[in-house]
Amino acid sequence: MSRTALRICPLCEATCGLTLTIEGTRVTRARGDRDDVFSKGFICPKGASFGAVDADPDRLRTPLVRRDGELREATWEEAFDAVAAGIRPVVERYGPNSVGVVLGNPNVHTMAGALYPALLLAGLGTRSVFTASTVDQMPKHVSSGLLFGDAHAIPVPDLDHTDHLLLIGANPLESNGSLCTAPDFPGKLKALKARGGTLVVIDPRRTRTAKLADRHIAVRPGTDALLLAAMAQVLFDEGLTEPTPHVQGVEEVADALREFTPEAVAAACDVEADVIRALARELAAAPTAAVYGRIGSCTVPHGTLASWLVDVLNILTGNLDRPGGALFPQAATDKTPRPAGPGRGFALGRWHSRVSRHPEAKGELPLSALAEEIDTATEEGEPVRALLVVAANPVLSAPDGDRLDKALESLDFMVSVDPYLNETARHADVVLPPPPPSQSPHHDFAFNTFAVRNQVRYTRPAIPLEPGRMAETEILARLILAVTGMHGADPAAVDQMVIDQTLGKAVEEPHSPVHGRDPRELATLLTGDTGPERRLDMMLRLGPYGDGFGVRPDGLSLQKLLAHPHGIDLGPLRPRLPQPLKTRSGKVELLPQPIADDLPRLKRALEERPGGLVLVGRRHLRSNNSWMHNVPALTGGSNRCTLHIHPEDAERLGVRDGAPVRVKGAGGEVTAPAEVTDDVRRGVVSLPHGWGHSRPGTRLSHAATDPGVNVNQLLDGRLLDPLSGNAVLNGVPVEVAPETAPGCASVTEKLTALT
Ligand SMILES: Nc1nc2c(c(=O)[nH]1)N[C@H]1C(S)=C(S)[C@@H](COP(=O)(O)OP(=O)(O)OC[C@H]3O[C@@H](n4cnc5c(=O)[nH]c(N)nc54)[C@H](O)[C@@H]3O)O[C@H]1N2
Ligand SMILES: Nc1nc2c(c(=O)[nH]1)N[C@H]1C(S)=C(S)[C@@H](COP(=O)(O)OP(=O)(O)OC[C@H]3O[C@@H](n4cnc5c(=O)[nH]c(N)nc54)[C@H](O)[C@@H]3O)O[C@H]1N2
Ligand code: SF4
Ligand SMILES: [Mo]
Questions:
Q1: Fold of the 138-329+588-601 domain
Q2: Which residues form a coiled coil (predicted)?
Q3: 244: DSSP letter
């Protein structure tokens, strides 16, 4: 007997609704849910493999605890006893900063990851906080923090309505979009073209997205900030600005960018001045337009400046906060909107990392600095001696995995919350495995705030927890208790504490629908089968569309959401300014001081011309960072760890298609098969990330059969965007040579066998 169940796909940011076919306790099929209010039936090959990802036999079923040097299966009780016994003495002896926390990408794809990490950090009181954001989008948070006073206020292109879309360093045909949640991003780009709109792509590679574009600019990696600055300069120079209201500092920006003329930047960007002028004019002439930058504009030396310039262009052309431009979504679980007015602003560098004195951003230190924070003693304070890693695999995702590998091995104690025993988790003393997605509830707290249409959906677990499993929400609640000296307390107390605090605060806020009410009475009105569900109910009811605990009877609540299993549409993106602004002026602050202070560095970049090859990354549709290479259905074919190199570069260097090549960077050397293709521009080579599954002590049997190499070994962690602490992962200088050294025959044979 089979049945079906709905489940929002957690495998990328598009959040498609799936209809799962379930036989017994297994997902045997996944289709797009045609009735889903947002995704309307769309599914990609990854979503279609949901069952295979879910049922991977290498997923851990029980906790692992290290005994006599070996990780062995253990009960949950033994595992949390070990966590408390391992972490508490470190905190008590060396202080809170000696316990580091690493939060990885899948935290934004789980309810547990949305609801508990903030409590974990607050409970520990540690400043040793590292997340995947500093190998990803931290520059965007910083530029939004500075411009809008809120690091989470990120404008999203109005894909369904824009007339002109400028994509910079993004390849949504492979990634399915990021910081822009849009099921069927490819379809939306095709629809844009079908309605007469224009698509422009700036990317050093001729990606599948670039192939769809009306205009593709193969910019030199790392120079987007110069290109965008020149576009802004053209807008000023030719009188093409009509800035968005509520903005201050427009003239100051005009002054600050005066030198960045198209002629001045052309050589550095390797884009002709006339082309830059045309890009600016077309942007200004379009009835509506949106500029959108992603990984390729963030993970570069001027990531924050490029992210800032993306919004400067949207603002100067009047496209910020108008339909068809770039707007601020309003999610159902957003805080109750407060009245517009000045806020507290955004501060950077409130403290610094111990070893290299990197400024914090958004309360985080650069993931690039994790290894040195563990392995380097200084007089400033204690190194990180214990580490809690939740849904992260920094040995592969962060610079210099070999150094981090050794640093992790030197820790006094380490905990991983991860379904796999992978390159990072193999160092843990305790591994706490969450259940597979089919057994977990789902709501997109994070991605709904970046969605191209306001909507809300919730799916309960499609399959009940199998015996011996623990919900990830409970795992994290118990972890919080174990590391904060409350080991053994009821995990429900964690949710209750949040509910009491949130409601206690809400009743005191004049703009809250529950102002003046009794928080204890409100708490009794919450529904839901679990603590996390009650917290979701609370957030929905206090939120911008909520029922306000009875004040707006038609408003949202968990019950209402459960009655709409395919979700509730909340309409297109709408103008919201000035309400979301939290700057001290209450305006968009177009030239914040930290940005002005960083512009001289950009000016110096005008003179830089990298002589040799530079490396960029790439993503493959059937993959996801470091953790989907263990699913046979998602590997093979074009999803391989090869070095893309332009035919002219290949010829000059004597590199043959399919033959192994050595790639050398500041942090080390790797050997990968060459794939000669003019899809990369001259002077640029490309390797995907998340590979390198050849370390011993992991349990990734399929991934180990075609391990690939770790591109991040080419980095030494010193290249950062200074304002955000974001790692520079693109535009990195490398040397490339055919693999010819004697003694490497076996490697060569193995690699050619794979081609
Ligand atoms: N060179 C280079 N490096 C990059 C990038 C790049 O473009 N180029 N991209 C960067 C980006 S954008 C990111 S976001 C990072 C990602 O870096 P990380 O977050 O460190 O890595 P991931 O591979 O996304 O997966 C993290 C871990 O989460 C586990 N996991 C999967 N599902 C769950 C779950 O439901 N619960 C829990 N607890 N764990 C789960 C996986 O097994 C895996 O071990 O990598 C970055 N690294
Ligand atoms: N299939 C798949 N989907 C994913 C992921 C995955 O690993 N696989 N990861 C998810 C995650 S965590 C994220 S953050 C998103 C990322 O989503 P995207 O940003 O869309 O990801 P990428 O495909 O890496 O696209 C980045 C593009 O930037 C280009 N680029 C490199 N350097 C430069 C530069 O200096 N300038 C410009 N203009 N372009 C440059 C690269 O060639 C590449 O095509 O994808 C998410 N979705
Ligand atoms: S596009 Fe993303 S969310 Fe949609 S089915 Fe594919 S992996 Fe899942
Ligand atoms: Mo990411």
A1: Dimethylsulfoxide Reductase; domain 2 (3.40.228)
A2: none
A3: P
